[in-house]
Automatic annotation (TrEMBL):
Source species, domain of life: Eukaryota
Protein's UniProt name: Uncharacterized protein
Length: 372
């Protein structure tokens, strides 16, 4: 790279050292040489010998650390060691043995807190968490994200939940009562990113109707920018229509959502959603019934027909599985506002055809790797 360009660079990328550790010495040398000071590192929970060796050198640039159960006694020491620390990720099981950590987190006030709690004993029966303890913890306004997986929430409704500062909530294979889901969401007005995956409500174990109804109602007072819903449980036709028409979010991601009628008949009237990511067997039908197509700026739906996509005139971002004919190539050329098109598979002959067709705005074609 040209030396004159390097000198002008300003680096504010956050590096996850679990992935970039081999490049760390070279990067630090570059940063010192060209006076990049405004960069940060995420320190992995299981630090390698190489990271530990460089600990003192990089300590002022560490913005996030991960804390596991066995490290909770040194929480204060870890936080004070990194003077520019912005947040901590805490893995906890909410067990009685972690009472010291629990009380410390309730009062911690100088860094943001991300809570992760995953149980891997689900195959022999889910572990249990007292739900009201979660309510106690998130009264600390520095707790900004919660992630739970493979748990059963238990407890009585004592109306103890209060408004919190959560910006992200992830619930994966959680069994809980309706009042629990309502209490959590209705008090998380700042939540921007919500992921609900295969949760089961005690009162409605065989259908997903109540989950979608609660999401719909709660979203009206939330600040949702992204909602991801995954379910293998059937829901009713009318609930799906109401959900798709009224859910308040910028990006909606649906995975495996199923309803008990093969087809939807009513129009989907949502005017707030601008980005759709669809991984259902009914992608085409959802796109067909979407009334305000001009509001949609991005579609990610690997299994859909581009004939349906052609009706969305204002698309800027489009992700497709592949293209197999010149007719479908011409479908893409209809979208005059397109900026980026991603594919999972693309024949080089088709790519050559794409590149030979002039388009006023497309700046990038990408072929995604399977992991993406």
């Amino acid at each position: 790279m040209d030396q004159s360009i390097i000198v002008k660079l300003r680096y504010r990328h956050v590096n996850d050292l679990s992935k970039t550790i081999k490049l760390l010495p070279d990067f630090i040398a570059l940063a010192n040489k060209y006076k990049w000071y405004n960069y940060r590192f995420i320190l992995p929970r299981y630090s390698t010998d190489a990271v530990k060796h460089l600990n003192e050198i990089i300590s002022d640039q560490v913005s996030q650390i991960e804390i596991k159960d066995e490290q909770n006694k040194t929480l204060d020491q870890s936080i004070s060691h990194f003077k520019n620390l912005e947040s901590i990720v805490v893995e906890t099981s909410f067990s009685d043995s972690e009472e010291f950590l629990f009380n410390k987190l309730k009062s911690l006030s100088n860094v943001d807190i991300h809570i992760k709690s995953w149980s891997w004993t689900w195959s022999v029966g889910q572990s249990k968490i007292e739900f009201n303890r979660i309510g106690e913890l998130i009264q600390n306004r520095r707790v900004i994200s919660l992630g739970f997986g493979f748990f059963t929430f238990i407890g009585e409704n004592d109306n103890s939940f209060q408004p919190n500062s959560l910006t992200k909530i992830s619930l994966d294979r959680i069994t809980m009562s309706q009042w629990m889901l309502k209490s959590l969401l209705e008090n998380s007005l700042n939540c921007q990113n919500l992921e609900i995956e295969n949760i089961v409500l005690n009162e409605d174990k065989n259908q997903y109707d109540k989950v979608l109804e609660i999401l719909n109602h709660s979203s009206q007072s939330m600040n949702l920018q992204r909602l991801r819903v995954v379910s293998n449980i059937t829901t009713s036709h009318q609930i799906v229509v109401d959900f798709l028409s009224n859910i308040k979010t910028g990006t909606l991601i649906l995975v495996s959502l199923k309803w008990n009628n093969e087809t939807l008949s009513d129009n989907i009237t949502n005017q707030l959603i601008h980005s759709l990511e669809l991984f259902t067997t009914n992608n085409d039908r959802i796109l067909e019934l979407w009334k305000h197509k001009d509001n949609i700026k991005s579609i990610f739906a690997p299994n859909e027909n581009t004939v349906k996509v052609k009706e969305f005139k204002n698309l800027r971002y489009l992700t497709l599985h592949d293209l197999s004919s010149s007719m479908r190539i011409n479908d893409i050329s209809v979208h005059k506002n397109l900026h980026t098109v991603d594919f999972y598979e693309l024949d080089f002959g088709v790519l050559n055809q794409l590149l030979s067709i002039p388009h006023p705005n497309i700046q990038r074609y990408s072929i995604l790797s399977p992991s993406q």
